[in-house]
Design goal:
- With about 250 residues, the chain is α/β, with parallel strands linked by helices.
- It is built from eight helices and ten strands.
- It is globular, with a radius of gyration of 19 Å.
């Protein structure tokens, strides 16, 4: 039996922005703030302001949802630790959300006609270090189904797979890599096969609230102690030698 409507707090700090939402049976309230180093300072006040705007207190919250990644290491740790601390203190469960799925959901909410039943959306997020966080998700029966799980690609991989001369169906692409890595992805966009190319899609508060409500209705919650970030990269930074090599490729002087 589906769970009854609930009061849910949702948050994501996997990117360079803080996205937060308060989802109640009657409304959705959202916040978007600068992230990065400011996330740990500003996240709790943002959540508190959402509750105040909704006329609620922490005791009214039934579950805390968080974007588990993939994304920036510091951001994922911030989201997870804040979520665990709140959930343990409130004695409520946690909903773990895939950040790339939240990007796909935001694209669907922003452009529903471009994501019909059965459509597959490839989410491409900038992972820095000339890499992308990538996942493919199909919209079927009111849910996102995983076609390709989150993984790392070299930034040149989309052009290799989908660029001029490649065999590929119509593409639906979403995520900040479309702008952050525009030069590398230009060969894909130039083919004219993109039914959707949403560079503005992000793990927005509206998307987080939407995913959280569906997860709650499925009973898809975990104990706070079991909430963990999703890491698809073991290495978080380049060495000095690697940074120098990137600045001066082999065969180029300087």
């Amino acid at each position: 039996m589906p769970a009854s409507p609930a009061v849910l707090i949702a948050l994501d700090t996997a990117t360079d922005l803080i996205h937060a939402a308060l989802a109640t049976p009657d409304a959705t309230l959202v916040r978007q703030l600068p992230g990065g180093a400011q996330a740990s300072r500003d996240l709790l006040p943002a959540l508190q302001s959402l509750l105040a705007e909704g006329g609620l207190t922490w005791q009214d919250v039934d579950a805390i949802a968080f974007g588990a990644g993939p994304g920036a290491f510091t951001g994922l740790r911030t989201a997870c630790s804040v979520t665990q601390g709140l959930a343990l203190g409130l004695g409520c469960p946690v909903i773990s959300l895939d950040t790339l799925r939240a990007v796909a959901e935001d694209a669907r909410l922003r452009q529903p006609d471009a994501v019909p039943e059965g459509a597959i959306v490839w989410v491409l997020q900038d992972a820095r270090m000339d890499e992308l966080y990538v996942a493919a998700l199909a919209w079927r029966d009111g849910e996102w189904q995983t076609v390709e799980p989150p993984r790392l690609w070299p930034v040149a991989e989309p052009a290799r797979r989908w660029g001029e001369g490649a065999v590929a169906d119509d593409l639906r692409l979403a995520g900040n890599a479309l702008s952050a890595c525009a030069e590398a992805l230009a060969p894909v966009l130039a083919t004219g096969r993109c039914r959707l190319a949403d560079a503005e899609a992000r793990p927005s508060g509206q998307a987080l609230a939407s995913l959280s409500r569906r997860a709650w209705a499925r009973g898809d919650t975990v104990d706070a102690a079991l909430a963990l970030p999703t890491y698809v990269r073991d290495k978080v930074a380049q060495t000095t030698a690697e940074r120098a090599a990137a600045r001066h490729p082999a065969g180029q002087g300087g």
